Amino acid sequence: MTGLEVLFSTVSGTITRPQDVVVCFVHWEFVQNGYKCLGTGDEPRDGERKSELLPAAWNGNQDLYSLRYRSNDDRHNLLVKAIIVDSTLIFNVMDSATEQVSDLTVIVSDYVDEHHLQEFESVFRNTEDLAGKVKSRLLPSESRKKAGRKSDRDPEPDTTQEDPLRIPPRAPPSSRTPDWSDPMFTPGRTGPDPLGSDPVFVAGGLDLDPLGGRGPGGMIVDPLRAGFPRSGFDPSGGIPGVLPPGAVPPGARFDPFGPVGRRRPGPDPDHLPPPGYDDMFM
């Protein structure tokens, strides 16, 4: 916090309340990020000059602080107002050059020890947190970019970490990620291998192929591909005991309604007589 102690020592005699300490810190943060103070009030006055110090009577109003700042390159003119509301300070900053408006609410007790208002070593609390809020919420975005890497409190950017939002460079075909969209894909194999010893993403994959086009399985039972004898079955020739010859036109779609070539052993359960059918007393 280079320079803050010097600034505080110049105004410590005029500090009478915790809100003064917060405004002093915010003023120092503006100076650290490329601004100088022009004076108090909303309108400019004759003979004003840019200064790193707080102007005279900067805390004369008991309800409102009003300070004007100009950037070192004269591209930004800021009107900073801080309104006292109970134990909080509500900062409002307007950039007259861009008409950009920003605000910040500060709970004074979080950053100031009111029992040591004139003692620099004890009066400030959580200065790093307050400095971060001032830079991110009050300073114009252009000023944050310029001053962000100049501050001795900010670490150097880590160039070893890749930005997750940056579009990655194109990789050669040999190093591209394999296509995981195929549920039958198994790394290290050239084709589908649903029965391999180390399948990946295969569990349930056959259910995604109802007709079993990629191998055994599927959700639709087809007597012609479910382990039953396949001896050139032709539904148009009829099924003994089920369909007469010619019942199914040649080439027509046919969905069998029972196992082909196999009859149920024994009598049909539907044909069994009910229990006690021959009891004359029933």
Automatic annotation (TrEMBL):
<feature type="domain" description="PI31 proteasome regulator N-terminal">
    <location>
        <begin position="13"/>
        <end position="139"/>
    </location>
</feature>
<dbReference type="GO" id="GO:0000502">
    <property type="term" value="C:proteasome complex"/>
</dbReference>
<feature type="region of interest" description="Disordered">
    <location>
        <begin position="231"/>
        <end position="282"/>
    </location>
</feature>
<comment type="similarity">
    <text>Belongs to the proteasome inhibitor PI31 family.</text>
</comment>
<comment type="function">
    <text>Plays an important role in control of proteasome function. Inhibits the hydrolysis of protein and peptide substrates by the 20S proteasome. Also inhibits the activation of the proteasome by the proteasome regulatory proteins PA700 and PA28.</text>
</comment>
<keyword id="KW-0597">Phosphoprotein</keyword>
<protein>
    <recommendedName>
        <fullName>Proteasome inhibitor PI31 subunit</fullName>
    </recommendedName>
</protein>
<keyword id="KW-0256">Endoplasmic reticulum</keyword>
<dbReference type="InterPro" id="IPR021625">
    <property type="entry name" value="PI31_Prot_N"/>
</dbReference>
<dbReference type="GO" id="GO:0005783">
    <property type="term" value="C:endoplasmic reticulum"/>
</dbReference>
<keyword id="KW-0007">Acetylation</keyword>
<feature type="region of interest" description="Disordered">
    <location>
        <begin position="135"/>
        <end position="199"/>
    </location>
</feature>
<feature type="compositionally biased region" description="Basic and acidic residues">
    <location>
        <begin position="142"/>
        <end position="156"/>
    </location>
</feature>
<keyword id="KW-0488">Methylation</keyword>
<feature type="compositionally biased region" description="Low complexity">
    <location>
        <begin position="249"/>
        <end position="260"/>
    </location>
</feature>
<dbReference type="InterPro" id="IPR045128">
    <property type="entry name" value="PI31-like"/>
</dbReference>
<keyword id="KW-0647">Proteasome</keyword>
<dbReference type="Pfam" id="PF11566">
    <property type="entry name" value="PI31_Prot_N"/>
</dbReference>
<keyword id="KW-0963">Cytoplasm</keyword>
